[in-house]
Amino acid sequence: MRTGMRTRETGHRRAAVGIGAAVCLSVVLGGAVPAYAGSERNEGDSGSTQPPNRGGESGDGTIGAHINLNRHAPGGGTKTTPVRPINPNWKPPVCWYEPEYTPEEYEKFIKDAYNGAQEPAASYAKKRDGEKYHKGDDGLWWKVAFRNDTYQEACPISTDNWEIWVPPADPQPDPNKITPEKLSELAYNATELPAPPVRLKPGADRLVVNLGTRVAFEGDFDRVWTTASINYKGVQMAATTVATPVALKVEAGTDDADPQTCTYDLTKGKGGYQVNSEDAGCNVTYRRSSGSGTYPFKASITWKVTWTDSANPDGPAQQPGLPDGLSTYEQDVAVKEIQSVNR
Q1: From start to end of 120-203, where are the E strands?
Q2: Nearest-angstrom CA–CA distance, 199 and 181
Q3: DSSP assignment letter at 175
Q4: Strand, coil or helix: 95
Q5: Would you call 15 helix, strand, or coil by DSSP?
Q6: 3-state secondary structure of 182
């Protein structure tokens, strides 16, 4: 049994004791619903599940109650970091509904977890009992699931509808139900991008005043994709976000450079996407020595992010679109003066 399943069962048993207090607390906090069962903490600033730093497939990530994450990245052990949206206002879903119970399972859960609960939880259980748990009807009870369990972000789901009944032909779909679009947003949030494999010519410790600094890539550098999928109790859907590197921007790290920044389009080659600025019209040229110190050279990759409504990264791109992403690499560079002797 997976850890997430054990967490859910433990949460169900604890609900009988603490559910009333949890409901009251959530109302006081303005409607933020605590993850009383089924939530799993996902580390990282953006709340994403962190994948291992290795190439190839990784299927060990989960989020919510039944959503699986599968990542694919170029090999070579390149260090990865969470995708940084170019649009700073973009946020992934905080919570959503996932399928959880048949009517019979839901009746058992309510009677076990809410037995002896105080108000307002007792009224909630009574309401579900009055609905007869939809026994005999086609459909499933869907339960709220959370992207993380910090409770710091507002959840649009109220304390009165932690679970909702969803028939096969849903006449009024709840906007918070899990959908391929929501899965794409969760996949985006779980995506990690490799840092630009930048190689400087001359090397970072051998740059020279008034000599153009050329940039090239080392190793494989290709697109990255993440699939978020659910396959539970007959509800099956998936979405795949695909991040494709499109441009490299380098920043000299000092005003004493001409120009201070350069941008290069990436081209698809046999070993992945490539850049070689040897013949480019733009190359950073340092005009002053860094002396005994260094300059903070920075390279940033812009990634075009699209998504498909399946586990196939090569499927047709869907709308609405997702924001472009960034990955960065920083390196201290030493710039020296060339000494000459006049006779």
Answers
A1: 140-146, 163-166, 192-194, 198-201
A2: 38
A3: T
A4: strand
A5: helix
A6: helix
Query: Alpha-carbon distance 42 to 69, whole Å?
Result: 12
Is 211 in contact with 285 (CB distance < 8 Å)?
Answer: yes
Tens digit of each residue's pLDDT (9 = 90 or more) over 20-36: 333 332 332 223 333 32
Sole residue written with tokens 């472009």: 324
> Which residues is 85 bridged to in the sheet?
325
Alpha carbons 275 and 268: distance in angstroms, whole number:
9
Closest by CA to 254, choosing from 317, 340, 332, is 332
Cβ proximity of 65 and 100 under 8 Å? yes
Please answer whether residues 318 and 309 qualify as being in contact, where contact means their C-beta atoms are separated by less than 8 angstroms.
yes
Contact 105, 134 (CB under 8 A): no
Per-residue pLDDT reduced to its tens digit, 34-69 = 332 233 323 333 333 222 223 344 445 889 999 999
Structure tokens at 108: 């058992």
Token pair belonging to 302 = 């812009």
Q: Which has the closest alpha carbon to 82: 154, 187, 222?
A: 187
Rounded CA gap, 88 and 99, in Å?
31
- Pinpoint the alpha helices (H) of the chain: 3-28, 103-113, 121-130, 180-190
Note the pTM of the prediction, 2 decimals.
0.80
Q: Which amino acid is at 31?
A: G
In angstroms, rounded to a whole number, what is the distance separating the alpha carbons of residues 246 and 301?
A: 7
Could you give the CA distance from residue 20 to residue 310 in angstroms, rounded to a whole number? 40
Answer whether the bond into residue 99 is a cis peptide, omega within 30°: no
Say if residue 142 is exposed, middle or buried (CB neighbours under 10 Å; 0-12, 13-18, 19+): buried
